[in-house]
Amino acid sequence: GCGTDGGDTEASRDLFAMDTYMTVTAYGKGATEAVDQAADEISRLDQLLSTGNEDSEIYKINQSGDGILSEETAYLVERSLDLYEATDGAFDIAIYPVMKAWGFTDDNFRVPGADELKDLLTLTDASDISYDKETSQIAFKKDGMQIDFGGIAKGYTSARIMDIFRACGIKSGLVNLGGNVQALGTKKDGSSWRVAVQDPQDTDQYLRVLSIQDKAVITSGGYERYFEQDGRTYHHIIDPKTGYPVENGLISVSIVTADGTLADGLSTSVFIMGKEAATEYWRNHSDEFDMILMTDDREIYVTEGIADSFESEMDTKIIEKKV
Ligand code: ADP
Ligand code: MG
Question: Is the CB of 42 under 6 A from ligand 1?
């Protein structure tokens, strides 16, 4: 366990990192120490995973186009490349040059020209990353390729905080990274955590609550980061097939699973897939995760595995395993 504080304590800290407000909470003996360690871990990962930080490993690899990865970066590259395969290229860490062209990396927002995007798309295919699991050697096959963990970093961070909590002997804790939640165990009284599921279009504040234990609930939506130009909105989740922000009728996707890293990677991927492809994907992977989809015509879909744990004042449709 961690620390020597009394048996029945609660500790909570608010912080700002990875461009978002975060809250870390732990209950029980060692809670204060666990929350302190979690805060340190968040700063460490913020530095490690930031593409803009010139001291970070990822920055150096993006400059040189190759290198030997540390164990942790290797883990994230492996998870990312696995997701690239599993999602038929929807999850693509090599999308970074296109993110830069849109200005999402430095807030110099602009709409790139069609020819510019076409050229950049030759650099954004993760299958052009050569990676050797044995040696952790990475090499980009084309000059100008760069990678970014933006679609997976927060989920990995919340997963790491769960590891810290467990190592500290904490049995009950919660982390909220800008609306992305991961819970350890149950609430102190043994009941499930009740997580509010965001709805970007909801002005009436309808209730949408998911009850969870030992799970991450990670949401992706175009509303998280966007700019407007000439009356149009452009957001930060890019379809690797086109180079444009994905527009497929989904406004938000929440993924529910015990693995925070997977939840984050899939939230981005499922948002890109759209409702039909996402439904098919879930039917083939229903033992790995559950999901909540919201469409721009105000429909909510939840997969069978969490249907009984989801409360909503709005009409909810259930996605079943068997059609
Ligand atoms: P948020 O970071 O707002 O919680 P996401 O998890 O969906 O939302 O991640 C969006 C981020 O993922 C973008 O800011 C960008 O860094 C990265 N990204 C954008 N498109 C893709 C993609 N097709 N594959 C992988 N990562 C992406
Ligand atoms: Mg994500």
Answer: no
CB 292 within 8 A of CB 254: yes
95-132 pLDDT, tens digit per residue, is 999 999 999 999 999 999 999 999 999 999 999 999 99
Determine whether 224 is exposed, middle or buried from the number of CB atoms within 10 Å of its CB (0-12, 13-18, 19+).
middle
Beta carbons within 10 angstroms of residue 57's beta carbon: 17
Give the closest residue to 155 by CA, choosing from 255, 70, 239. Answer: 255
d(CA 205, CA 124): 39
Residue 265 CA, ligand 2 centroid: distance in Å:
5
Q: Is 245 helix (H, G, I), strand (E, B) or coil?
A: strand
Q: Is the CB of 96 under 6 A from ligand 1?
A: no
CA triplet 160, 126, 121: central angle to 5 degrees? 125
Dig out the tokens for 30 from the structure.
């060692």
Length of the chain in terms of residues written? 323
From 46, 273, 282, select the one nearest 156 (Cα to Cα): 46
**208 in Cβ contact with 300 (< 8 Å):** yes
Q: DSSP letter at 295?
A: E
End-to-end CA gap in the chain: 48
d(CA 236, CA 223): 9
Please state whether the predicted TM-score (pTM) of the whole model is above 0.70.
yes
